[in-house]
Amino acid sequence: MADRSPRILSIANQKGGVGKTTTAINLATALAAVGEKVLLIDLDPQGNASTGLGIAPQERDITTYDVLMGEYRLDAATIETEIPGLSIAPAGVDLSGAEAELIRADRRHFRLADAISESDLTGTSYILIDCPPSLSLLTINALASSDAVMIPLQCEFFALEGLSQILRTIETIRERINSTLTLQGVVLTMHDRRNRLSIQVEEDVRSHLKDKVYNTVIPRNVRVSEAPSHGKPALLYDLKCAGSRAYVKLASEVIEREKEARQAA
User: From residue 80, how far is each of 49, 160, 200 by CA, in Å?
Assistant: First the structure.
């Protein structure tokens, strides 16, 4: 894949607490573990993806804020992680002010897309973008630059309501800003097979979206929850835990879907 443009996937949901950043970190790690070269772009002002990959705030000299403001190239912001093949463009607290500044900026919806196109991404297979949990100019920048969207969906009562919101957003972006944007898939997170509600949500989502829902389901898992406090993805913290094994399976599904997308293009 080194001679091809990287596939760009936004990991997005307008609802918080659905496992979005956890999915971004561990999917990126799993893709790198099977030999893909991956860049994770942290576009959430909380910077949790950066923290979860062990990048301390004082190490974030150049952040995605600087990239969006046009002060530095994306290449300059990129930091190699301890996972071979995985790098990250980190976020800092300054990103929280980007929204107000972008409103007045030229090409405000396309600042990230421009930064990606101007960067040397030789050999990069995948770019994953961890979006903030809201429909902001940051999220719009991510979707405007992406080939597809992955939606993490927590198996809880209000899941379908949040799903309908992000699906409407994707359709709006497709109509107005990025006509080639597609839904890569919906990944069910925090699933508890002992809980009837989790099973019901899974059945409802699969009935509604059919094969757009990944076969892989991410279980509710203590080890996955503990990993970020150690600055590690779950796959490094505990490779054998159920959550880590699930993210490895998810990576395989993502690769297969992207192969199909390339062939159809």
Answer: 14, 37, 41
